Amino acid sequence: MTGGRGLIAAMCVAEVLTMAGVFAFLALLPVFFAEWNLSNTEAGWIAGIYFAAYAVSVPVLVALTDRVDARIVYIGGALLAAASSVGFAIFAEGFWTGLMLRALAGVALAATYMPGLKVLVDRYQGSRQSRAVTLYTSSFSLGTAGSFLIAGEITAAFGWRWAFAAAAIAAAIAAAIALGLHRVKPRPLANPAPLLDFRPVFANRDAMAYVLGYGVHCWELFTLRSWLVAFLAFSLAVQPARAGWPSPTTVAMISGLVAMLASIAGNELCVRFGRRRVIRLVMVASVIAAAGIGFSGPLAYGVVVALALVYSAVVQLDSAALTAGAIEAADPDRRGATMAVHSLIGFGCGFVGPLVLGLVLDLTGGATTALSWGFAFASVAVVGLLGPLALGLRTKVEGIHS
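Predicted structure:
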């Protein structure tokens, strides 16, 4: 494959496969609460360590793609994802083993998600790069849906260890797909700098506006995805009648599909109405949704599910647009470094968000009341208010690449 639709399809499929284990632990939180006797804070640590490990390792792994073919990094990451899932299936027994193995899986995601985007960008020969980027980044949500679905269905039939084994097989297939792509020799750098010298990236205010906005976005997104199943399980538990409703993992799977469509639609809205304007409106709507969703738990379960799906769509509308904006504003010689900073800040916030929500739950009643969940998600809304402020750093005239 040398470019165009075949390349986009291959990388989107590979991304979905590598993500089969990404949200498996989060999809099964109620199971691990019971089996491992976890507190909300401990669950927040295991959920967050994944993104912390991603944030720590992504600067090196993605910046490296400016110097070597990103395909090499990607294949290594996919194989690591397979190994970490096998390890979880065999060795995970409680908080500490779970924590260590999820950290290893986070490194694997750092070697596949943004390096996979670099694999695509380096090989894509079409004229609509922003849409190619959008399709790839939107596939993250499809991978999320698949991860929740695989975890829920396989666990119900065979147990949670087999769910992680299936994720390992999927990641190995993704490595084979990347192996089939042609090699690309990195372009010589016009102004070479040390691998981890990100000062030129931080000096690019246009790119950093999107990067900081992405950080706020990831705080919201990964907090929602980390705690959605547990929140829905709480809502389901307080319902007078529980029969006939979709399970929390099924709702989480559907939310991933909704989020994928929302991400694509969000980028198209940006193309039509201007990226910065659309992103700001979406951020405000997301704050409103976060402020109310936690308090809705005791409402009829169908209403809670509908609100959760709406929130999942709103929080995802600006995802692809923020990433596309950062890539287009980046210096071509430092595109990999820009993507590294983008991921470092985004997934660093993705680590802190779930942990903070878990802490708030423990401080306000232990996730046993709607008030506790309301305060927890209200903390997400407070952080979301910083998003529109981040876009104020943008200095270039909008419209050239939007």
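Summary: Confidence is low (pLDDT under 50) at residues 395-402.
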